[in-house]
């Protein structure tokens, strides 16, 4: 039986992916990739690094700098985690979907779309997750006005 | 993979039951007639007797008796929304024991007279709350428990919280606190009993206080 990858092994193997920018030492391994390589890197993380558990996904609104999508995947055999980040750039809200790689990303990406309005390209069913279907706007964006009226309850 | 700007999609409004705030406010001023035949017949009868000379001699003891009966068996519907529901359960339990006031927590809105809104009312939950409230037979009362249902509380400036449950249903007693301890809720329920004992007619209640924001 193959020995599971350790944290150090995974860091060494990350050199195989040229576009990945690896962060400082420690757990989790923080990796930034360009959005065009997002799905490709997710497949790399799943197949090569063995991070088969999709933990969660979210996004950060950096205002003028645009949105940043983050995803956390775990290698439970090796006991390390991988924090994937991608900066979408100013004014861009399209991002490749991870659903073809991780099925667990389905609802997370729906929630991300719900809260940040990120259009995940390749997602099979991109609808609102938590808010009502008729909601206008995406409330976790910094540009969403506090106390936006919502009739009939305001 | 090519990154494209999304096409903005403006969804159609679904809140079709109320067209605008004015209609909602007009409905909010007075409890709507939801077709309770018994209550309206009782009201007509009471009005008829009361308008007769000296009729108040009949209606006043009758009202007093009926209100005594109403306040002595005011069953709250078992309905908890958030952390206030824990305090509500403590109030229902043996230490504070609202059953000695005749309040039996009942797991059906159709047999209940009182709704204790115990917790944060989200915009998504408000239609369900209104639906449960509509299922309760008249006469019915509502106690708003805690800051969240009074005014939105700490979540008032959130995107998802109704800024006070009185924007959804009429409220009789507001219990402050975050959460209110069982003593506070008990005090509120005693105030509600006091209010029920002065309940004069079915179907009418005072206009809510004007909104300042």
Descriptive tags:
heterodimer, A: 154 residues, alpha/beta, 5-stranded mixed beta sheet, two-stranded parallel sheet, 3 helices, elongated, B: 213 residues, 4-stranded parallel beta sheet, 38% helix, globular
Overall description:
The complex is a heterodimer of chains A (154) and B (213). Chain A is 19% helix and 26% strand. With 154 residues, chain A is an alpha/beta fold. In chain A, the strands form 2 sheets. Chain A has a 5-stranded mixed β-sheet, with helices on one face. Chain A has a two-stranded parallel sheet with strand order 6-7. Chain A starts with 6 loop residues before the first helix and ends in a 33-residue tail after the last strand. Chain B is 38% helix and 7% strand. Chain B has a 4-stranded parallel β-sheet with strand order 1-2-3-4. In chain B, strand 2, helix 5 (126-135) and strand 3 form a beta-alpha-beta unit. The longest helix of chain B is centred in the first third of the chain and has 17 residues, at 56-72. The radius of gyration of chain B is 20 Å and the shape is globular. Chain A binds chain B through residues 35-36, 38-39, 88-89, 91-96, 117, 119, 121, 130-136, 139, 144, 146-148, 150-154, and chain B through 1, 3-6, 10-15, 17-18, 20-21, 24, 123-124, 126, 157, 159-160, 162-163, 167-168.
């Amino acid at each position: 039986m193959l020995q599971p990858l350790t944290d150090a092994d995974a860091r060494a193997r990350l050199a195989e992916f040229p576009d990945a920018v690896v962060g400082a030492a420690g757990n989790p391994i923080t990796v930034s990739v360009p959005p065009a390589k997002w799905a490709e890197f997710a497949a790399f993380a799943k197949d090569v690094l063995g991070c088969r558990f999709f933990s969660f996904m979210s996004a950060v609104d950096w205002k003028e700098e645009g949105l940043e999508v983050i995803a956390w995947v775990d290698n439970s055999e090796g006991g390390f985690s991988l924090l994937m980040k991608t900066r979408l750039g100013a004014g861009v809200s399209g991002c490749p979907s991870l659903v073809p790689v991780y099925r667990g990303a389905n609802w997370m990406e729906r929630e991300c779309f719900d809260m940040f309005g990120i259009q995940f390209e390749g997602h099979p069913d991109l609808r609102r997750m938590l808010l009502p279907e008729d909601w206008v706007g995406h409330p976790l964006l910094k540009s969403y006005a506090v106390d936006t009226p919502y009739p009939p309850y305001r | 993979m090519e990154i494209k700007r999304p096409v903005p999609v403006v969804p159609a409004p679904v809140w079709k039951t109320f067209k605008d705030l004015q209609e909602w406010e007009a409905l909010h001023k007075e409890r709507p007639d939801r077709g309770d035949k018994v209550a309206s017949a009782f009201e007509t009868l009471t009005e008829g007797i009361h308008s007769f000379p000296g009729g108040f001699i009949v209606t006043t003891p009758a009202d007093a008796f009926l209100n005594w009966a109403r306040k002595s068996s005011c069953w709250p519907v078992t309905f908890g929304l958030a952390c206030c529901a824990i305090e509500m359960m403590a109030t229902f339990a043996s230490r504070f024991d609202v059953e000695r006031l005749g309040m039996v927590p009942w797991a059906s809105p159709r047999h209940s007279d009182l709704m204790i809104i115990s917790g944060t009312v989200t915009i998504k939950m408000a239609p369900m709350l209104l639906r449960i409230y509509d299922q309760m037979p008249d006469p019915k009362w509502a106690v708003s428990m805690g800051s969240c249902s009074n005014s939105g509380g700490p979540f008032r400036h959130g995107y998802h919280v109704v800024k006070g449950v009185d924007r959804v249903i009429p409220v009789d007693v507001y219990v402050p606190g975050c959460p209110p301890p069982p003593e506070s809720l008990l005090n509120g329920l005693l105030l509600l009993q006091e209010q029920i004992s002065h309940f004069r007619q079915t179907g009418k209640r005072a206009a809510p206080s004007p909104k300042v924001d």
